[in-house]
User: What shape does this take?
Amino acid sequence: MSSTALHDLGVAQLAAELRAKRVSAAEAARHFLDRAKAHQNLGAYVAIDEGATLAQARAQDAAIAAGTAAPLAGVPIAHKDIFVTRDFPSTAGSKMLDGYRSPFDATVVTKLAEAGCVTLGKLNCDEFAMGSANENSAAAPVGFDAPAPVRNPWDAERIPGGSSGGSAVAVAARLAPAVTGTDTGGSIRQPASFCGITGIKPTYGRASRYGMIAFASSLDQAGPMGRSAEDCALLLSAMCGPDPDRDSTSLDVPAEDFSAKLNDSLDGLRIGIPAEFFGEGLQDDVRAAVEGALKEYEKLGAKLVPISLPRTELSIPVYYVIAPAEASSNLSRFDGVKFGHRAKDYTDLVDMYKKTRAEGFGDEVKRRIMIGTYVLSHGYYDAYYLQAQKIRRMIADDFQQAFKSCDLIAGPVAPSVAWKLGEHGSDPLADYLADIFTLPASLAGLPGMSVPAGFGAHGMPVGLQLIGNYFQESRLLNAAHRLQQATDFHLRAPEGI
Ligand code: GLN
Assistant: This one.
């Protein structure tokens, strides 16, 4: 087959081409590496190592030739630079980890490699996954000498979303067939929505966090991002499963074949529509696209049921207390002794800690460490942290109440389409507020996904968010797949791609 069409294939089709030896894993890898180079102005990749990628690809070609190929043998993917990898540097978008090499692979990376995937490189993200626009990265993208913005392929003057911005851009611009991301408060769903691709965050604990550089451990969860639900299902099946020796919060729930129920009928499916997701803050263009998708669901036999998630607004203060609290503890390991950056000139140990951390962390990370330390400190713990934990429980309970009358929940992913680079300037609250619709499912540990639902203002993509009850990933993917059978939003490519 002609290699020009390779980047338009879905993961399943590409895997079939590879197994039938119509294209080799090495050819596929080279094709995507060439595309990554041709579109490096988008800033998606932060590390590429052709030698390492081609060595992995040749090993997959050998397995295919020997008839021992795993299901995704030779499918090239790329990882958010929050997963540690032996073959590539791992920086989490931070100066603190500039040039850091992990001696081991994250479990998710290992599992995808065991499924036959070949790693194309590492993808840009907000520093330690803190952000909503990928504007907090300290990494210089491939082809740049200094940090440069990650650009949305639908409009290069707009942000791709965050924190998995590089991941979303790589898929939207066809620089990888599918990728990994992580979602602590929306970082898979929101960039997927802003870049017109599909992404799913599974139930908290389904995918191992081992080797995922920690931000907020009770929220962090890995998931796939691809063009379609079908592609996401294939990757998710490979990524999930218990990891008891390495991640104590990984659940003892076996991996599942998430592709098995993609085509199930939606007849009689009850889709809950939370009133709080359609209030004042929602932009009209996003509302119109989301309502269009909901109409499609009605045509497919689903019933829309009004529900309430009364504490939606509180998810912002609750998340921005709990996540920084956990971050302040997790990031204490970056002290100049154990990994990464160490200040050059210092007088004693404490001075070394101070200078290392002052130099190594960016503004947003410092802000969160300070907030986190404050809310955990004696005298404030009860007023902020404990209070936030109580409301977190109530938010989770609200979902259980809602799931009594519906099978899944649908609404917008974000209140608007992707904003302009620099538009939120130095106002972190503007970014925090835009997380309102993704935070509730994160706080409850529920699976959530973003599915392309159309286009809004400035021709920018709009995502529909689907939220399921615990372990309902198959149902989410089924609903997403059926919508994608009825619409073509996920197949459209940005101009010039
Ligand atoms: N935007 C949210 C934050 O800044 C979520 C980030 C994430 O999910 N990693 O914390």
Observations:
- DSSP finds 15 helices and eleven strands in the chain.
- The domain at 1-497 is CATH 3.90.1300.10 (Amidase signature (AS) enzymes).
- The two ends are 20 Å apart (CA to CA).
- The pocket of glutamine is lined by residues 129-132, 163, 183-187, 215, 323, 435 (CB under 6 Å).
